[in-house]
Amino acid sequence: MSTAAGIRITVAIGVLALCLGAISPVGTWAVEPARQEKKAKKPAKAPTTAPASKATSPKVTAPKFESAETAGKAPSCFGEAPILDKVTPDEGKAGDRVTITGINLGQAACLQGVSFGPGHPAQFQQTNNGITTTVPSGGKKGLVLLTVTTASGENSKAFLIK
């Protein structure tokens, strides 16, 4: 290839790049005005929390606060994902009690759920040194993942359902 042909190709590529840059929609982005939400007619109630001694439901709803002061006193649930150290026992049948120990399990308000395989949530209770739960009925038998979910993530251990 001659030098003249190489220069023509380089110029053609440069012109093409300029044309594409000129018609690119990047410069036409506009910010949509924010919509204002309607104010609630009823004041929000302070969140209620269940005592740590009662089992809590794995379904979590966002708390509503009366003021910024009460919201500032709410527990901070984000941090490191939980790490499960031990599941005792590591096998059982429906109704059997299971104890889970580990680190970064968080506060009781931050623990979102315990499940024995996908679609099989279990009732649980958080204690000072871990979580106690029972194997739910109606789940599949065999090896499943026992999963603990917090606001910061989840971790699983193998569990054998008999």
What does this structure look like?
16% of the residues lie in helices and 31% in strands. The strands form two sheets. It has a five-stranded mixed β-sheet, with no helix packed on it. A four-stranded antiparallel β-sheet has the order 1-3-7-6, with no helix packed on it. The protein is an alpha+beta fold and 162 residues long. The chain has a domain at 68-161: Immunoglobulin-like. It has two helices and nine strands, in the order H-H-E-E-E-E-E-E-E-E-E.
| Strand runs, count | 9
Estimate the helix proportion, in percent: 10-25%
- Tell me about the largest β-sheet: 5 strands, mixed
The CATH topology of the domain at 68-161 is Immunoglobulin-like
Return the CATH class of the domain at 68-161.
Mainly Beta
- Give the helix tally: 2
Round the Cα radius of gyration to an integer and report it. Answer: 28 Å
Shape: flat
In the sheet with the most strands, the strands line up as 2-9-8-4-5
**H/E element string?**
HHEEEEEEEEE
Structural category is alpha+beta
Proper CATH architecture of the domain at 68-161: Sandwich
What is the residue-averaged pLDDT? 74
CATH superfamily of the domain at 68-161: Immunoglobulins
Runs in which pLDDT lies below 50 for 5 or more consecutive residues are: 24-32, 48-58
Measured between the Cα atoms of the first and last residue, the distance is: 76 Å
Bin the strand percentage.
25-35%
